[in-house]
Design a protein that fits this description.
Elements: E1 2-4, E2 7-13, E3 18-19, H1 28-31, E4 35-40, E5 44-49, H2 52-57, H3 62-66, E6 72-78, E7 84-90, E8 95-98, H4 105-116, E9 120-125, E10 131-138, E11 141-146
Parallel strand pairs: 5-6, 7-9
Antiparallel strand pairs: 1-2, 2-11, 3-4, 4-5, 6-7, 7-8, 9-10, 10-11
C-alpha cells in the first residue's frame, strides 16, 4: 500500500474471474429472478445483477449467506455515475457487509474491464458507508486508489 496525500494506492495481483455453471444451491433462491451472470474466484461468489438500483436496494438474508461458511458473496452491476458498483457480504466469516473491500476488486476490475472494453474504471462500493475507487488493470496487476478509514492501529514485535 502506498499513501498518496489523503488517498491510498493498493497494487494487487489480478485474479481473473472463473466462470461457473451454477450458484451454490443455498443462495439460488436469493438471486433466482435477477442474476444476469455469475462467476467466482478462489474465495468468493460474484453475482451480476441487472441494475445499479438492484445492488443498492438489495436486502441480504445473512442467515442464508452464512451457510456458505467463510465464502463471501459479491453483488455487482454497471453503474449510472460509476463504471460499476458492488457490495460484499461474508457473514459466515463474521462480516455481515464490508464497507469497502479492496481485495474483491482484484477480480471485479478484470471482469468489468473486459465487459466495458476499458482498463481504467471508476467503482463505487454501495455499503452504508460507501466508497469511491479508481481502478486500473495493468497486465497481471490491479491498481486501486481511494480514501481509507482507519479502523485499527497496532505494532508488531518480532523476536530477535
Amino acid at each position: 500500500m502506498q499513501a498518496l496525500g489523503n488517498e491510498y494506492l493498493l497494487d494487487l495481483p489480478c485474479i481473473e474471474p472463473e466462470h461457473s455453471t451454477e450458484l451454490p444451491p443455498c443462495i439460488v433462491p436469493l438471486f433466482l429472478d435477477n442474476a444476469v451472470n455469475h462467476f467466482k474466484n478462489f474465495e468468493n461468489v460474484f453475482i451480476q445483477l441487472a441494475s445499479e438500483q438492484e445492488v443498492r436496494t438489495y436486502q441480504p438474508d445473512l442467515n442464508t449467506l452464512a451457510q456458505l461458511g467463510p465464502v463471501g458473496v459479491v453483488i455487482t452491476a454497471t453503474g449510472e455515475t460509476y463504471d460499476f458498483i458492488s457490495r460484499y457480504f461474508a457473514p459466515g466469516a463474521g462480516i455481515p457487509e464490508d464497507p469497502v473491500t479492496g481485495s474483491i476488486h482484484a477480480t471485479l476490475v478484470p471482469y468489468w474491464a473486459e465487459k466495458l472494453g476499458k482498463r481504467c474504471l471508476s467503482a463505487f462500493q454501495a455499503s452504508s458507508r460507501g466508497g469511491i475507487l479508481q481502478c486500473e488493470l495493468q497486465e497481471d496487476r490491479v491498481l486501486i486508489k481511494g480514501k481509507a478509514a482507519t479502523f485499527m492501529k497496532a505494532e508488531i514485535y518480532l523476536p530477535d
